[in-house]
Write a structure and sequence with these properties.
This protein is an alpha/beta fold and 283 residues long. It contains twelve helices and nine strands. Strands 3-5-6-7-8-9 form a six-stranded parallel sheet. A three-stranded parallel sheet has the order 1-2-4. It starts with 17 loop residues before the first helix and ends with a helix. The N terminus and C terminus are likely disordered.
Amino acid sequence: MTRPLPTHPCATVGSPDRARTGREHVDMHCHCLPGVDDGPATLDDALALCRALVRDGVATAIATPHQLGRYDGRLTADDIRHAVAGLNAALRAQAVPLTVLPGADVRVDERIPALLDADRVLTLADSGKYLLLELPHDTFINIQPLLAQVAARGITPVISHPERNGFLSRSPDAVAAWLGKGALLQVTAASLLGGFGPAAERAAWHWLATGAAPFVATDAHDTDTRSPCMTQAIEAITRRLGGHAAHRVCNLNPARLLAGEPLPVPRVRNTGRMPVPPHREQR
């Protein structure tokens, strides 16, 4: 997995967010379970990350540990459910005001339809409504057949951080066919702030500006190099696209996903060019 750049904008955990935004967030993509993937190694580390999420305004987080790919065979759906129950018990004992729900960040794989049928891979919030699909970062795979098979089961596929795929970051309009099959895009808050390089930053802003990406999530892994930065992302989106857009992609749509409600089909607007990230416009 590609490591974040040393200048990652979320390397320092920020100050409380609720007073500034007036909202509590649903984080639909977060690696907060201890000892299961490349997220926190211990329960203490997981609790520290959960406290950071709360400081960043998150009230509900969907735990999305990696399934398949290099974690193939290591983590079952029941393993995740059990780990989430244990983390919630620890959060209650420590009076941390965060609710964690089970989910997974599932590496694209031709076996996914059968694994869904067998309850081997988890949908987001374990609702059977949305499935988070992770692409490889350095290889382009046409996943249209997989998207159609997932959609045929009444499940909406959500592509996690497509801006971190090298091909898609250079050719962001290549996702159009996937959107036509009912897929949705989730970009990472840190990508909007330059945390995964300029190509990922440009692509993430492009999808937000054109309406192709209805979700922003933290994809937080720790309190150091991959800490939550939803507050900073909301402020950046508000400056560039307005408060309504920030509320929609950071609050309203993730809450709809959490409730298992359908989202409107994104109405993608063609801007004709890739946007320059906000902080680069000022140079």
